[in-house]
Every structure is written in structure tokens, then in C-alpha cells.
Amino acid sequence: MPLAIRVCAYLADLLDSVSEFIGRSVSWLTIIMVLISCVVVLLRYVFEIGATALQDSVTYMHATVFLLGAAYALNHNGQVRVDVFYRHFNRRQKAWVDAVGSVLFLLPMCGLIFFSSLDYVEQSWAVKESSRDPNGLPFVYLLKTLLPVAAATLALQAVAECCHALATLMHPHSSEDGEVDHA
């Protein structure tokens, strides 16, 4: 196997493992969210006690799962895709679509989100922004920090997708139907 293909495959696997680790780590927050939501409901309707900080924590965890799970979803083809044509493409055609889509659409979008969110996050950190609700969580600035972090992790996964596509396209024994000739 040529060196360029091995390098692309290695880089893609490395970036995939980062997305996998982050995605699996934040997925545990979904269980915690369910448990805390049950506690909030019990406190409110059984004991008539408000729990603003607990409610805020569910919102924070939901945002964390959504933002940091995006790269994981892309890695597992969990994104929404209108695949009227794509599903009928062979492996090489799909690789072209994935590479071009990542370079022309996904990476620029990640760059836009990353750079446009920096001032927003910086302002939030400058004032150590906290919840507007009394008794809410005081860490809004940390939550807002997830915006550029999410853009960066999604961009890294987009690079991994490009590397997977390039490895497929550069493979000299890849046939049109996607089967690899190992002869």
C-alpha cells in the first residue's frame, strides 16, 4: 500500500478515535440528564420545591451532548443526509461526494462558527457570565466556550472524512463497485 494512502488512513483513524472518545464520554451525560430531570419533577410536583440550578444543569448537559456529539455523529454517519442520489453511488463516487462536501461546505461552516463565536465567548469570559435566573448556575461562559470547541472537533472529523475519502480514491485496486482487489 502506498505511503500516501497509509498516512491518510492513519490520520483518519487517529481523528476518528478522538471523535469516538469525546462522543462516548459525553453520551453518559444523557443518563445523568434523565436522572436529574426525574429529580426536578419529584422536587417540583411532590415536594413543591423549585430547583433552578438542577434545571440549568440539564440544559448545560444537553448543549454539551449536542455540541460535542456532532463529530461523533458525523463519524458514524448519523447526520441528516438527503441521499436521493448518494445511496445509489458506488464507493468511489461516495468518496468524491464526501471529500468535496467536507472541503466546500463542512470545513468553511466550522471555520465560520469557530471564528464568529470567539468574540462572543471572550465577552462572556470577561464578565464571568452567569445565569440570569436567581439560583441558576454561574457558568454560562463555560457553556458558551463549547461553541468554538464544537466547531473545532467537527472540523477535525471533517478532515478525517476527507482522509477516508482520499484513501479510497487513491487506492489503486479499488473497483467501481467499491470492492477492493487484493490481488
Return residue spans where pLDDT drops below 50 for at least 5 consecutive residues: 178-183
Per DSSP E runs of 2 or more residues, the count of β-strands stands at 0
N/C terminus separation: 12 Å
The radius of gyration computed from the alpha-carbon positions, rounded to a whole number of angstroms, is 21 Å
**Largest sheet composition:** none
Account of the protein in words:
The protein is mainly alpha-helical and 183 residues long. The protein is 73% helix and 0% strand. The protein is elongated and about 65 Å long. The two termini are 12 Å apart.
Topology readout:
Layout: H1 3-45, H2 52-68, H3 70-75, H4 91-126, H5 140-170
What is shown here, in short?
This protein is 73% helix and 0% strand. The chain contains five helices and no strands. The C terminus is likely disordered.
Descriptors for this entry?
183 residues; mainly alpha
